Structure prediction request, 188 residues.
Amino acid sequence: MILLQVIAALPVMFAVPEPVVNWTDAGHNALRLEVPEREDFSAECLKNGLELRYRFEMRVCRRRMLWTDGCDAARVQIQSVQYDPISEGYRVSIDLIGDKESPKVTHMQSESEAMGLALRIPSVALSEIGYSTQRFPAEKEPYIGIRVTADCKGDYNETISQISSFITLGLLEVGSTDSGWVDFRLTP
Prediction:
């Protein structure tokens, strides 16, 4: 019984806190995403000089009766933080996957400022995710699916990660945390 309780608690213990999603404007044209920091996870990673990466996935979906929900391809943005011992500062990189531009890199002296930048996306237009009222009318109950995963790059062995994931039936992945998919409804 105790083993079952421990296995049931693993996803909660190793999960990224649920992302907070809000509208950026009164016209409901853009979203703001933020993830509360798990200080134990981020501090340990940065203290060891490793790269802390957050992967934000956003996709527009619609509810379907008697079938799984229909979702478009996800918009993926990777934001990472790494401590540089030479400059005694933090390097923050923001990269939208699939665009033609290089990652945007910023250097900061404060860990709290660097983490604040890495843990939020100030504005994402609904059109960037693929939403339009013609493709997703209100009667289809459209929503945005949001998922945030975090990992400490270079912190774990891939073989160990696969073994632990197999033993726990996918509930635990060493070196990685996951918020799971969170739904943000677009219609009241």
